[in-house]
Amino acid sequence: MSQKQFFTGKGPRMALQYFSRHGACAGDSLTPEGIQSLQRTREILVEKGFTSDFVFCSPSKRCIQTARILAPKAKISELDELKIQNIYSLYLDTRHNDAAYQNIVALIDCFMPDLIVSHSCSPIIIALKLIERRSIAPLDWNGQKYASQCLQKGSGVLVHDTQFEYIDA
Fold first, then answer.
1. Which is it for the CA torsion 110, 50, 7, 166, positive or negative?
2. In 15-144, which residue ranges form alpha helices assigned H by DSSP?
3. What's the pLDDT score for residue 128?
4. Residue-wise pLDDT tens digits, 120-152
5. Among 52, 81, 119, 141, which is most exposed with the fewest C-beta within 10 angstroms?
6. Contact, 23 vs 38, CB < 8 A?
7. How far apart are CA 20 and CA 27, in angstroms?
8. Domains of the chain listed by start with CATH number
9. How many Cβ atoms from other residues are within 10 Å of residue 44's Cβ?
C-alpha cells in the first residue's frame, strides 16, 4: 500500500487527511439534508486540494454512506475500532494511559488513509491524538477548543502533518 507524501527541503511530509463524523441521519441512514451537506463538504475539501483513494470507516451504514459521498472512488476499509460512539469519555478516563487510542492511531499512522469516518467526537480526538503522536511535544489538551466538543454531523477535521483545520459545511 503506498503512502501519500509530498516532499519539502526537510524530507517527507504527510499528505492531507480528513477525519469526519458521519452525516446527518435518521436511524442508520443518511437523510437528504445530510447527503447535501456532505456534498458541500466534498466541494470544500476538493478546493483545499484534498483527494482520497483509501478510507478507514466505522462499519455502520451511515459512516459507509458518508465515506462514499466524500470519497466516491476510494477503497473503503471498515474498522470495528471506529465504532466507538463516545471516545471522549474514554479520553477522560485514560488521560494518562493512551491504551484506548494506541491501536486506532497506530493503524492510521501506518496505513495513512486519506479519510477516516466515525461517530460523535471520536474523529477530532483521534485526529488530535495522531497530531500529538507526530509532534515533538505533547498537545495542551486543555487549550484545544474542539477536543471536548462533539462534531456536528457531517463536519470534520482536515489534518496536514501537525496542523489541523475544522471544516463544517
1. negative
2. 32-47, 61-70, 87-93, 99-111, 122-134
3. 79
4. 777 877 887 788 777 766 666 555 555 555 677
5. 141
6. yes
7. 18
8. 15-167 (3.40.50.1240)
9. 13
Rg of the Cα atoms in the chain: 15
Cross-strand pairs, 14: 5
Q: How far apart are CA 84 and CA 119, in angstroms?
A: 7
The SS3 of residue 82 is helix
pLDDT digits (tens, 9 = 90+) for 15-25: 789 999 999 99
Q: Residue 20: is it exposed, middle or buried by C-beta count within 10 angstroms (0-12/13-18/19+)? A: buried
Q: What angle do CA 49, 117, 69 make, to 5 degrees?
A: 60
Q: What is the DSSP string of 56-75?
A: EE-SSHHHHHHHHHH-TTSE
